[in-house]
Amino acid sequence: MNVPLKIFTLATLFVLPMVPTFWAIQEIPRRRFRTRRRKMVWFAVVATVPCLGAILYWILERRHTTPIMAA
User: Fold this and answer.
1) Closest by CA position to 58, among listed 15, 14, 26, 34
2) Would you say 64 and 34 are in contact if contact means Cβ atoms under 8 Å apart?
3) For position 55, what pLDDT does the model report?
4) 70: which residues sit within 8 A by CB, 6+ positions away?
5) Can you give the pLDDT of all 71 residues of the chain as single tens digits?
6) 66 has which bridge partners?
7) Residue 22: its pLDDT value, please?
């Protein structure tokens, strides 16, 4: 295995799990939750447990929220 391929592989392994986290961090403020506290808790979960928190948010909570309409 040559050096550029190793670098690409390592970069992929570190960057790919961050994609759901960045998506969730941008998505949570744009959605209406049942309570403000619930929104803050999910934001903290996603920020604290990056990839797993984002996946859990997507599976468990996102379907219970609605988009905030832009005025």
Assistant:
1) 26
2) yes
3) 95
4) none
5) 688 899 899 888 989 989 999 999 999 999 999 999 999 999 999 999 989 999 999 999 999 999 998 65
6) 32
7) 95
Is residue 28 within 8 Å of 61, Cβ to Cβ? no
- Could you state, in order of their start, the residue ranges of all structural domains in the chain? 16-67
Q: Return phi, psi of residue 44, to 5°.
A: -65, -40
Contacts of residue 68, Cβ cutoff 8 Å, sequence gap at least 6: 30, 31, 32
Reduced to 3 states (helix: H, G, I; strand: E, B; else coil), residue 9 is helix
What's the chain's length in residues?
71
Residue 57 is predicted with a pLDDT of 96
Q: State the DSSP code for 37.
A: H
Reference 27, options 53, 69, 62, 63; nearest CA is: 62
